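ok so i was messing around last nite and threw this chain in just to see what happens. nothing serious, just curious
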Amino acid sequence: MKRAICIFCGSSFGNRNEYVNAAEQLADEFIKRNIKLIYGGAKVGLMGVLADRILKQGGEVTGIIPRSLLDKEVAHKNLTELKIVEDMHQRKYLMHEMSDAFIAMPGGFGTLDEIFEAITWGQLEIHKKPCAFYNICNYYEQLIKFIDYTSEEGFVSREYIEMIINEDNPQKLLDRIYSYKHPVYDKAEEAKKQLR
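result:
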């Protein structure tokens, strides 16, 4: 069965050419490994770069976009499939349902919201799918440090921190996604210990 991986990323290009180059490299890896792209459905920014690169090489791309963003995010009209949903909640739910893994490329608040929801659902075992940062040009380095700090301060168990994949190389990123094993950790049991 063909794998489908969801990528969260910016509807902007960012200020470095490296972001676009890295998006193209990841798209090429999707083609080599016959991976279907699930993404936000826009034609602009890094979202558009990924979709166009995969489509040009004969790959499959499904976009999911809320009706209210059809014009704001400039919906891509030439995808394999474009699903129009009513709101952001439906968009994220459908992304989660259709995908075997989640990758955050550089992006803004929307990207952060999407990847952290995916990580949280993994923590709660709503799914057991890999969640990853494609850490181009160390874009997520400060965020990774903060995530480590949440563990140091006792708010996130180390097992959940180690659940997150962090790579700047597209081949290594996908290799780690393919070999991912979800942590065995009983959050409910850990919570009960605090009551004893």
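not much to say yet. The first helix runs from residue 17 to 32.
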